[in-house]
Amino acid sequence: ANAFEKGADNIVGIPAEDFILKPVRKAELLDWLGRVLALEWLEVPQRAVSGAGMAPAVASIEPMVLPSTELLHNLQEMIDLGYFRGIVKQLDEIAANEPGTAMFVQHMRQLAQQFQLDAMTGVIRKAQDAA
Fold first, then answer.
1. Shortest CA distance to 118 belongs to which of 86, 82, 92?
2. d(Cα 44, Cα 35) in Å, to the nearest integer?
3. Prior bond to 45 cis, omega within 30?
4. 86 vs 92: CA distance, rounded Å
5. If you average pLDDT over residues 42-56, what whole number do you get?
6. What is the pLDDT of residue 5?
7. How far is CA 47 from CA 43, 51, 79, in A?
8. Can you give the pTM of this predicted structure?
9. What is residue 47's predicted lDDT score, i.e. its pLDDT?
10. What is the DSSP string of the chain?
C-alpha cells in the first residue's frame, strides 16, 4: 500500500529500494525478488511447458468473436500490470459491451484464474495478428 513515499525516510528502517508501489508490475516484482533472494531466472519456451491442469499457451481463437481493439488494449494493460482485479473488470466490461465475445471472455477468464498471464498475452497477440 502507500504507507510511505518511495524514497522517503521511515521509522521501521525499510530501505526505499524495498518498496514496490501499487499497482505492482510483474517485471518489477520479479526483478526485486531475484535481487533480494539472489535468484537467476531461467526462461522456458512456452512450447516446452506442459502438464496436467495447464491451459494451452495459445488456444485456437478462429471461431471466437474478438472484442474491439480498444477493449483488447485495455485488457492487455491490466495483464501487463499483473492486476488480477483489473483483468476481471476488463473482462466484465467486454462481456457487457460486446456479448458476442462470450467464448473469448470465457477462455480468458480460465487463463486468468490460473494466472496464465503470458498465455493471455499470446491470445491477444494472435488476435491482433489475425486482424
1. 82
2. 20
3. no
4. 10
5. 55
6. 58
7. 12, 11, 20
8. 0.57
9. 57
10. --SS-TT---TT---GGG--PSSPPHHHHHHHHHHHHT-------GGG---TTPPPSS---TTSPPPPHHHHHHHHHHHHHT-HHHHHHHHHHHHHH-GGGHHHHHHHHHHHHTT-HHHHHHHHHHHHHH-
Residue pair 23/86 in contact (Cβ under 8 Å)? The answer is yes
Q: Are 4 and 60 in contact (CB under 8 A)?
A: no
Q: Which residues contact 125 (CB under 8 A, 6 or more apart)?
A: none
Sign of CA dihedral 17, 18, 19, 25: positive
> Which grid cell sits at 54?
495447464
Res. 112: pLDDT tops 90? yes
Give the closest residue to 47 by CA, choosing from 56, 38, 59, 39. Answer: 56
Average pLDDT value for residue range 55-60: 47
| Cell numbers describing residue 74 | 485495455
